[in-house]
Each structure stands twice: as structure tokens, then as C-alpha cells.
Write a structure and sequence with these properties.
Number of helices: 19
Shape: elongated
Radius of gyration: 31 Å
CATH class of the largest domain: Alpha Beta
CATH topology of the largest domain: Rossmann fold
Distance between the termini: 73 Å
Number of strands: 14
CATH superfamily of the largest domain: P-loop containing nucleotide triphosphate hydrolases
Structural class: alpha/beta
Low-confidence stretches: none
Number of domains: 4
Mean pLDDT: 87
Strand content: 5-15%
Length: 450
């Protein structure tokens, strides 16, 4: 185990020797010097984990030592030693960045405990910086994998949007990466140091959703035994993602609108409003304009959240990205192994419709990684549904006329045939075509199909 290196500065020879002995005995590596000038010189030539310095010394005093050290390393913990009668100097040193102070006389336990606390705090701060840097790097837009023009257009707009505080609506089918795009916007914004709170509006039971979003006070309802902060409060000075906002009850939509308009939240059972500073990003796989026509979504809320609209393209519309994504997922699930995929398996991935989009592809690669027999993924490790779809496509006989054909007309006829085959059942027809039901409905509306 690496020993922590401590720079000890004190002009009192006997006290310095006692402290040095105590620290060495406790397992520290100590460089002990008798003046501020000597301490600063040693600091410039070596690396230390903490500094202990007396305040009152001839020549360069402890305050000057503190200033010199923090000019080079603002985060290095500096503990100052002071006599009982000059505590005001120690308080001044704390204001100028000293970690803590101890007063003479002190015992070895007090010195060790103060030093241990300083080193622990430095380690936690370092880990926190590294973690934040890792999170920020993970959610850079560059980490969203793909080279297709459709994806690049979305990421380009998201990058420009991130610099503002504008409300964003992200639409797209399930599994396209809407949540990843929302995190990218947050971590590339001026709010990146604040919290990112994601709420899945479809996953929280109806009886709890209002309390989860807005919080409650003690006694607001049976079982409310204490005050509780809502997600909007927790996201203060940061970003809240309202995932699947299209599933939110119509009465709660009015409360979301109030937050957006007035920047306040009302806890359940409370008589006063709380101000919040929150950026709102909403996402959904529903057609909100259709929901408005059906009376299931408020048009005024739609106008508020649709300031900037971003649509994540489905994977079938960016098939060139499939090999890139498959390779990335192979690396993710086979760390330390050089994995690849044979051409037959890759062809199956490219020909599949991916109704579950990137999330489904990730699951397929994870499954193949678990079942693999060697370092090369073959079609034997892929699920049967991929083989069935390819077989089905190969069985379609297309007599292409010389004069050309309308792709839209062909798609419309294919939709009609699928609906006819399944007696108008939209869910089954969508499954048969390898698309989601909202996509089927969207395409039916596009072609004016009832």
C-alpha cells in the first residue's frame, strides 16, 4: 500500500521532531523542514499529499506558505498549527483555503485524526472529479454511435440546443436512444454541474405519480408520514427528463404546464408554492398531435414542450449504423476478448427490421455473447426471429415492371395486405411488418387509410 507523503514545516525543532516521529510511526512518509522558504522549495521539487505548517515562523510565515502552495495546487490540503492565543490567525488561514487548524499544545491523536480527515476529503474530491469527468465523457454526443446523415442532423441540432435553456421534445420509437440524447443535452449544457433527474411517466403507478413529480407535505394523505421533495425540486438548477410524457394523465399535464409557465411547484397538501429553476426535456414514442385530436393531451402543453423538436430516427432508417453498433456492443459484453462477427450473421443483422431499434440490437448482441462458442459470432448464436424474417423476405416474389414502380404505392398496398391478413388488428399487423403500432398508425394516416 502506497504511503501518503507529508510536508511538515515548523521552526520549533523539538516539536517538529515529535510530530515527525508520530507521523512516521502512523505509516506516513514525512519530509520535515524548519522554515517556510525551505518548505516551499521542497514543495516545488516533490509531490506531497498534504502539508502541515506552523503559522508563526521567522522569514516566510505560514500564511505565505499557504498562498504559495495553493498557487501551485489549489486542492492540496494544508493544516496550520497555531498557539492558543493566535486562533484568529488560524481562522484567517481557513478563509484563505486552509483545510483545518490545530492549536498548541496538541496530542498525536488529534494530529493524526485531522490529517486522516484531510486526506480522506482529498481522495473523495478526486474521485468525484473523475466520476463527473467519466459521466460527462460518456454522455458526449460523440458517444452516440452512428455515421448516418439522419443521426448526424439530430446530433448537430442537439449540440446547438444544449447551449440554451429551451424546452426540448424528443420523439421516436422505443429503443432509439431518446434518453441518451437527453443526457447528452444536459451534460453539454451550462447546467451540467447540476442534477439530471429522469422520470418515466409510464412506469410510476397513477396513485403515486403526482407525489413523485411535485412532492408532498406530512399528512397530505394516508401514509404521508414526512415531507417529501418531488422530482422537480430535486432537479433544481439542473434538468428533468419527463420520459413518455404522452402517458401522463390530463390533470397532471395542467400542473406540468404551470411549472413551465410560472417556474413554481405545489407540493401535495401545501399552501405555498416553491420556486424551481429547472430545464425540462420531454420524450415520447406517441404521436402527440394524434393524442391532442383524441382529447388525451393538452394542446397548450404541447406548444410549451415543443419549442425545440428532435426526432431520433429508427434503426431501420440508418442500417449503415448496424455494424458500428454491433461492434460496440460486442466490445461492451466481451471485455478483454477480441470478438468479431462472420459475414452471414452480419447480413442477418442488416436485413432485420429492428422494431425494438438499438435497444433490441443490444439485447441480441448480449445474447450472442453469452451463447458464443468461440471468438466469432455466427448465425447459430442469433435468435430465431432474425432467421424467420430473412426467410419471409426471400419468399416474397416481386415482379418489377420495366416502367418503374411507386415505392409509396407499394408500401400502402403492403400495409393494406397486412391489415387484411390480421382482420384489421393493428397490433398484430404491426408485429407482422416488424414495426411498432404507433409507426403503423402514422403510416396509415400518411396514406389516408382508415
Amino acid at each position: 500500500m502506497k504511503k501518503h507523503s507529508i510536508l511538515l514545516i515548523d521552526d520549533d525543532d523539538s516539536l517538529r521532531r515529535v510530530m515527525e516521529f508520530s507521523l512516521v510511526e502512523a505509516g506516513f512518509r514525512v519530509q520535515a523542514v524548519s522554515s517556510g522558504e525551505e518548505g516551499v522549495r521542497f514543495f516545488g521539487q516533490n509531490t506531497f499529499d498534504a502539508v502541515i505548517t506552523d503559522i508563526t515562523m521567522p522569514g516566510m510565515n505560514g500564511m505565505e506558505v499557504l498562498k504559495k502552495i495553493h498557487q501551485a495546487d489549489a486542492d492540496l490540503p494544508v493544516i496550520v498549527i497555531t498557539a492558543y492565543g493566535t486562533i484568529e490567525n488560524a481562522v484567517l488561514a481557513m478563509k484563505q483555503g486552509a483545510f483545518d487548524y490545530i492549536t498548541k499544545p496538541f496530542n498525536r491523536d488529534e494530529l493524526r485524526l485531522t490529517l486522516d480527515k484531510a486526506l480522506r476529503m482529498r481522495r473523495l474530491e478526486k474521485e468525484n472529479r473523475e466520476l463527473r469527468a467519466e459521466v460527462t465523457d460518456r454522455y458526449r454526443f460523440e458517444s452516440i454511435i452512428g455515421n448516418s446523415e439522419k443521426l448526424k442532423d439530430v446530433l448537430d441540432m442537439a449540440g446547438r440546443v444544449a447551449a440554451s435553456d429551451a424546452t426540448v421534445l424528443i420523439t421516436g420509437e422505443r429503443g432509439t436512444g431518446k434518453d441518451l440524447l437527453a443526457k447528452g443535452i444536459h451534460f453539454n449544457s451550462s447546467r451540467s454541474q447540476g442534477p439530471f433527474i429522469a422520470v418515466n411517466c409510464a412506469a410510476i403507478p397513477e396513485a403515486l405519480i403526482e407525489s413523485e413529480l411535485f412532492g408532498h407535505v406530512k399528512g397530505a394523505f394516508t401514509g404521508a408520514t414526512r415531507d417529501k421533495e418531488g422530482k422537480f425540486e430535486l432537479a433544481d438548477r439542473g434538468t428533468i427528463l419527463l420520459d413518455e410524457i404522452g402517458d401522463l394523465r390530463i390533470d397532471l399535464q395542467a400542473k406540468i404546464l404551470r411549472v413551465l409557465q410560472e417556474r413554481v411547484v405545489d407540493r401535495l397538501g401545501d399552501t405555498k408554492s416553491l420556486a424551481v429553476d429547472v430545464r425540462v426535456i420531454a420524450s415520447t414514442n406517441k404521436d402527440l398531435e394524434l393524442s391532442i385530436r383524441e382529447g388525451k393531451f393538452r394542446e397548450d402543453l404541447y406548444d410549451r414542450i415543443n419549442v425545440i423538436a428532435l426526432r431520433m430516427p429508427p434503426l431501420r432508417d440508418r442500417r449503415d449504423d448496424v455494424p458500428l453498433l454491433a461492434h460496440a456492443f460486442l466490445k461492451k459484453f466481451n471485455k478483454g476478448s477480441e470478438m468479431s462477427m462472420d459475414q452471414e450473421a452480419l447480413t442477418l443483422l442488416l436485413s432485420y427490421g429492428w422494431p425494438g431499434n438499438v435497444r433490441e440490437l443490444e439485447s441480441v448482441i448480449e445474447r450472442a455473447s453469452v451463447l458464443r462458442r468461440g471468438d466469432v459470432i455466427t448465425k447459430a448464436e442469433l435468435p430465431e426471429k432474425l432467421l424467420r424474417e430473412q426467410s419471409g423476405v426471400e419468399n416474397i416474389i416481386l415482379n418489377l415492371p420495366e416502367e418503374g414502380i411507386s415505392l409509396e404505392d407499394l408500401e400502402k398496398r403492403l400495409l393494406a395486405k397486412a391489415l387484411e391478413k390480421h382482420k384489421g388488428n393493428q397490433t398484430r399487423a404491426a408485429e407482422y411488418l416488424g414495426i411498432t403500432r404507433p409507426t403503423l398508425i402514422y403510416r396509415m394516416e400518411k396514406y389516408g387509410m382508415r
